[in-house]
Amino acid sequence: MTAPKPRTRIQEKNRARVLEAALEVFSLHGFRGATLDAIASEAGLSKPNLLYYFASKEDIHVTLLEGLVDTWLAPLREMRADGDPQSEILAYVRRKLQLSRDFPRESRLFAQEIVQGAPRMIQGLSTDLKALVDEKAAVIRIWMASGQIAPSDPHHLIFSIWSLTQHYADFDVQVRAVLGEDRDPLAEAEIFLETLFSRLLTP
């Protein structure tokens, strides 16, 4: 089987333009609301030119989601079993908040995929994501059993961290409408969530 030709610099640049444009369109309109015409227009390319790089709207969407998974799993992977339990969990909360600050469009893309039943990433959720969460939940359970942190359900503890951090990306408009534009929601959230989880985790 002949190996595919390596992409030229201009091909790589145009693929990146398409993915950046698609991220903007998908994060605003979701998969169903996005069109190839809208993505091509956002990228500054013709639709036929876009289709030279990607076979379909779904091909672009799957490429974005596949690139997102590693970014999304990285903060949890960094939780160390040999670290101080409360410090490790609070550091995970901070890393998840940082993702909401740095990658709000990616967060909304991920959320929209989940809300729609995750048709393009259910396999990864039930394998890679589940395996990692189960692994870290087992670590947290050991910390709880040894009395280093207060007992609770480790899986739901992780779920609560997801919901309380990703909210600031997925519902940014709502948060800013309530707080006003002169406040920094994520800076305030970090202080609040550290207090909240510290109290929850303290034996």
TrEMBL record:
What would be an example GO MF term here?
A: transcription cis-regulatory region binding
Q: Which residues form a coiled coil?
A: none
Q: Which Pfam families match?
A: TetR_C_3, TetR_N
SUPFAM superfamilies per record? Homeodomain-like, Tetracyclin repressor-like, C-terminal domain
User: What residue stretches are annotated with the HTH tetR-type domain?
Assistant: 12-72
Q: Where's the DNA-binding part?
A: 35-54
Organism equals Gymnodinialimonas phycosphaerae
Note the superkingdom of the native organism.
Answer: Bacteria
Q: Which InterPro entries match?
A: Homeodomain-like_sf, HTH-type_TetR-like_transc_reg, HTH_TetR, Tet_transcr_reg_TetR-rel_C_sf, Tscrpt_reg_YcdC_C
Q: A biological process (GO) annotation for this entry?
A: negative regulation of DNA-templated transcription
Q: Could you tell me the keywords of this UniProt record? A: DNA-binding
Under what name is this protein listed?
A: TetR family transcriptional regulator C-terminal domain-containing protein
